[in-house]
Amino acid sequence: MLILFPSNIFSRADHKSLGGLGTSRWLEALWEPSAGLFILPGGLDMLDISGDGDARLICADLGPVGSDLTKIRVYKAGDQISEHNMIDPPCGVVGFYTENGEPRSSVVAVGAGDSVYIFKNMRPYFKYCLPHIEAHPKEREIWHRCGLDEELNVLTLADDLELLLKELGATVLSSRTLKFLSMDSNLRLSFAEQYRRVPLVKANALTAIATIRRDSWNDPASSCLILGTEGGEILVLDPRAFSVMDKHQLEWPPVAFASYGLWTGDGRIMVIGRDGRIGTIRRGSPVKLWETLPAPAVAISVLSSEGAAVAIMDGTLMGFSKRYGQNQLEWPPVAFASYGLWTGDGRIMVIGRG
């Protein structure tokens, strides 16, 4: 675990620059190489999971490179107290409360694949599945015509789908089409016969998960789940029923969130897209874009109600302010909250303020 003590006034810091936050500014408080954790940004959180007043560290461990064994690990005072196997690699893990003033209402949400797995007392409690998204109209039309034909012409179907793949790209097409095109030609007929009259839908996938307080500043306070999808959606779920409260449609998939304020009030969600776009969303309003990052983002953290810090893959720590814009923010002495990064060699890096 590494801790950074930044200057109380900076707007942009590069780890290579002498005048910014150089590597000499990192204080190595704890290093445990035998931990062997492989964690992506968003895969760390702390929560009092049992309501006893003692917070636990929750990690989404992807396992070593080449391993498909993903586990959710829970630590107390440096010791692992439980682990839970996951079928799909998680995009993130968050802890939150479903009721105001109820310490025992704490739950852990793990986003993986097209589902959010909710744990209560680290036992399976609820599973939320993303709604399917509509397939591209041209793809639907091809499969619809295929279903109407009395006698299936698999060669025509393959030619039409191959042309569509070249036109739209693989990311736009459904898993049915991609699987059909990847199959041996001898197996395509039976596959098409099995599915050609089944309605075509495109499976969605989670890309990011976070929380935002719902309607109270008193701790513990209930929080809404924020979900980002491959289809470019941002879904805000009610903490009690886990139903969709609000939905925002973007033109790009979000990969990281940070939030501040109350969602039922003037709260905002900061969102970063896979293509580097960064902006904010408030309830009932479309996304307001700020900037396009020069490199993919690693993590984002709110510093105050006026700005955020973003770590990007070129080694730069950037500051953004709603009031002053990029690189002009004098940050007040506010801590980085849960700003965890995986260093790539089995260590966990947490940025904080002294």
UniProtKB/TrEMBL annotation:
GO biological process, one term: protein localization to cilium
Alphabetized InterPro entries for the sequence: BBS1, BBS1_N
Domain Bardet-Biedl syndrome 1 N-terminal positions: 26-282
One Pfam match: BBS1
Highest taxon, organism lineage: Eukaryota
One Gene Ontology term of the molecular function aspect: smoothened binding
GO CC terms: axoneme; BBSome; centrosome
Protein name listed in UniProt: Bardet-Biedl syndrome 1 N-terminal domain-containing protein
